Amino acid sequence: MCVSSPSMKDKAVQIRPWLLADSDFVMDGSQPLDPRKTIFVGGVPRPLRAVELAMIMDR
């Protein structure tokens, strides 16, 4: 698939679907997930589950 932007035309992109059950994780289950305080992490070299990414970032 190709995507264009103002600075680059027809850049090849890869789309990796993510299993929705693995797309979010809250370390403290008593705290609700606030969508205004969520982030997108791109450039991850391999598929990760949200819990794995949270553990890496918590180190």
From TrEMBL:
Gene Ontology CC: one annotated term: cytoplasm
GO molecular function list: mRNA 3'-UTR binding; mRNA regulatory element binding translation repressor activity; ribosome binding; translation factor activity, RNA binding
Family matches, as InterPro entries: CPEB, Nucleotide-bd_a/b_plait_sf
One of the GO biological process terms: negative regulation of cytoplasmic translation
PANTHER family hit by this protein: CYTOPLASMIC POLYADENYLATION ELEMENT BINDING PROTEIN CPEB, TRANSLATIONAL REGULATOR ORB2
Protein name per Swiss-Prot or TrEMBL: Uncharacterized protein
